[in-house]
Amino acid sequence: MGGRRTLCLVLAGLVLAVQAPAAAQQPASGVDAAYGAYQAGRYITAFRMAMQRIEANPADAAAMTLLAELILQGLGTRQDNRRAFEWYKLAADRGDRNALFALGMLHLEGRGTPRDAEKAQTLLRQAADRGHGPAAFNLALPLLITGKDADLASATRLLKLAAEAEVGDAQHALAVLMLEGRGLPKDEDGGADMMARAAANGSLAGEVEFALLQFAGRGIGRDERAAARGFTRAAARGNAIAQNRLARILFQGRWLPLDKVAAAGWHLAAKAQGLADADLDEDVAKLTEDERAKAEAFAQDLAKANALTQPVSAAQTTGNSFKQP
């Protein structure tokens, strides 16, 4: 498939994921004992320490935000959307940007409070104004699809802010604009560099796109073997485009050892997600009955594994808001 078409498709997918949680980062107050306990999975201890901090300092917004996060997710305490909302609001009223972001997402989703898109936008804007990268990213996404030059300019500014905060999906979206020359001068070298950062920061779309750039030698030296490794990582994370490319590579036995059963399995996994490929269908048809059965089992195992390992979406939780500065 063409590189430009793929870039457009992946960007469109991002726009549909307006509520996607961003990459985990440290709290604005720095790493402390309560946050360390949270990171280590000692949630009851984290909850107790956060409460102790608030008792010692009723204006401790960072502790309030951590407490809200624990309550929202039901970690170390009973899950309660409304109670989490109230703690986030206390922290947001004190200017905590993590809480402002989380509160905005709760208003957007109608969790613990009535749905209010206008209020959500206001809160996300306040968080972004305080340098919160994920908030800037969420604000930028709807602006990318309006078709208005002014909105595209605003989206670009917001994406740059989020990219500087090392938000991988924002770096991916910004790289797409750089590669296509939308809202920014066309810059394939800079776009490839930004896409590499997106991949390094865990953006699945960024990893796929960077592998495509490596494979084509676009904005970066051609390296098909490295691209094959990138497709392998992204395929394992459930990306259909990567699964399709990996299937082709394995059927050819180039850059990776020939493995027709695995190739067929990856193709079937991609096909189950709606990505058809007539050429690969022909390759699968040439397998023996036993090989096809193994490939089908392989694809089924992949689907089960991906269902278990997919990250929780922001439609279910604001996710990691305490960890984002």
Biggest sheet record:
none
Shape annotation: globular
Can you tell me the residue ranges where pLDDT is under 50 for at least 5 consecutive residues?
1-26, 311-325
Secondary-structure content class: mainly alpha
Number of strands: 0
- pLDDT averaged over residues: 87
Give the topology string: H per helix, E per strand: HHHHHHHHHHHHHHHHH
Instruction: Kindly state the percentage of residues in helix.
Output: 55-70%
Q: State the end-to-end CA separation.
A: 38 Å
Strand content: under 5%
Cα gyration radius (Å): 22 Å
Structure description:
- The structure is a single chain.
- Helices cover 68% and strands 0% of the residues.
- It is mostly helical.
- The chain has a domain of 84 residues.
What topology emerges from the helices and strands here?
Blueprint: H1 3-16, H2 33-39, H3 43-56, H4 61-73, H5 81-93, H6 97-109, H7 117-129, H8 133-143, H9 149-164, H10 168-180, H11 188-200, H12 204-216, H13 224-236, H14 240-252, H15 260-272, H16 278-285, H17 289-309
Describe the structure using short key phrases.
325 residues; mainly alpha; 17 helices; 68% helix; globular; disordered N terminus; disordered C terminus
Structure summary:
The protein is built from 17 helices and no strands. With about 325 residues, it is mainly alpha-helical.
